[in-house]
C-alpha cells in the first residue's frame, strides 16, 4: 500500500541558526494525519538537522547528490557522504537542477543508479515547462523523463523510489494548475508505470505533487485519488504552514 508523504524542500535557504530555529518550531507541531514527513535542508546543515530530529518521526533528506563515488568533482557530494551523516533519502531531478544546472535525463539516470546502489531512497522529480503545456505535449515530456531515467530498472527497486511531479509552468509564472490537472497527470503517470511494470509497481507508487501546494489548497489537491502528497517549497519554511499541509490528509 502506498504512503502519503509531505516533503519540504528548503532549497538554498536557512543558515545553521535559522535551521535550528525552524527545526525547533517543527518539533512543536503535531502530525494529526497519516502522512510521512520529510525535510531537506542545505548540505551544510544536514548533520545538525539529523541529530536534532533523530528521535522524532520527521525524516531529514538531501536535496541532491553526484553520481560518482568520489573524485575530482569540486563542490559535489556523494551518496556515501550523505549516508555517513545518517541520511537515507535523496531528492533527484528537481526542476531547478534541470533548468539551472543542466541536468539531463542521462545524468539523472546515473544519479538514480548511484543512489539505489548505495541503498538510498530516491524522490525523483520531473515535469513539463510552459511551452510543453501550451503545445499539448505535457504527457509526452513527462513520460520521456520517467522512461529515460527509470525504465531500465528492475521492478523490485521501485519500492525505494517516490515520484514527484512538478508542473514547472505553474511555479512562479502566474499560471495556475488546478487540482484536477494534477489528478489528470498523476493518473497518466500511474498508467505509464502500469504499462511497463504492472499494478504491483503502479498501485504502490507514491506520487507527490510539486506545484505550489499551500495550506489553503492542500486538502483539495490531496483529496484526488492519485495524489499521494506534496513536494513543498516556500511553505515548508514556516512550521505552521508546513504542518497545515501535512495535516491536510
Query: How would you characterize the largest beta sheet?
Result: 4 strands, parallel
What coarse outline follows from CA principal-axis ratios?
A: globular
In the sheet with the most strands, the strands line up as: 3-2-1-8
Low-pLDDT residue intervals, each spanning 5 or more residues = none
Assembly category: single chain
The total of helices stands at: 11
- Round the mean pLDDT to the nearest integer and report it: 96
Strand content: 5-15%
Question: What is the helix fraction of residues, given as a range?
Answer: 40-55%
Distance between the first and last residues' Cα: 16 Å
* Broad structural category: alpha/beta
Q: Secondary-structure element order, as H and E?
A: EHEHEHEHHEHHEHHEHEH
Using only C-alpha atoms, the radius of gyration works out to 17 Å
Number of strands: 8
